[in-house]
Specification:
- With about 290 residues, the chain is an all-alpha fold.
- About 85% of the residues lie in helices and about 0% in strands.
- The protein is built from 13 helices and no strands.
- Helix 1 packs across helix 7, helix 7 runs antiparallel to helix 8 and helix 9 packs antiparallel against helix 10.
- The longest helix is centred in the C-terminal third of the chain and has 32 residues.
- The radius of gyration is 18 Å and the shape is globular.
Amino acid sequence: MNDFITLLPTLLIGALALIMFGLGLSLTVGDFRRLLGHPKPVVLALVLQALVLPAICYGLILAFDVSPVYAVGLMLLAASPGGVSANLYSHLFGGNVAMNISLTAINTVLSIVSLPLIGNFAINTFAKTGQVVPMQTGKVIEVIGIVLVPVLIGMFVKSRAPAFAARAETPMKRFSMVVLAALALIAIAKEWTALTGSFASIGLAVIAFNALSLGLGYYVPRMMGLDKPNAIAIGYEIGIHNSTLAIFVAVSVLGDFQLMVPAAIYSVSMYVLATAFGFLVLGRQPAAVAARA
């Protein structure tokens, strides 16, 4: 198991690259152009993701008196873009999946700037005693390479071999999710004692952040006059964060396993809350969901 922990940063890089490549297989330049014709949901989603959620996360850290290291880890999670699972949940519960896919791509690109900014803000604000080393320029470039390059490669493959991309898109996403789930389960099993021991310190804040992300992502667009499919898409887009990216930054970029605890807890809680949100809030029944899958 110690060998696995040593290899975990490298394995996370591979898993994240696979996920981003699979996302690229589902995107074209036209996806971004179409969003320009419907700016309201895009701008609203980006404002919620980039400004509102980090502010709410900051408030939760203060409200729950979260320790400095976990505070930084939770802010990294808040700064992470929507995860691939958001697309799946949006499909199952009646959301605008095309909106999800495009928002995920845009948020992923923006996170190249926003994640280091928010991460270093959290480090300077909460970890004042030097427990955590801020992200340096070289590490930021590393994140750009791991996140953006596989997406561009996937888009290039789709443009050159659309039939292959269409066949590979779903298997690649499923394979990526299996690899990610396996890595998460092994890491959680290895760190189970630490996770359960730290749940009292950070668990409730993580769950509250998850629930608020889903709720705000759905109800704010509805109050702003957006239709239900777009509201569902935004709700899942900002309610299901890319915890892999947060874990990658914590472990591979900042070199601190404690920083990954919030994202590790979140990677479990988000599936429970996202499913409950679909059934209880959106009013979907299991049979209807099965019919959409």
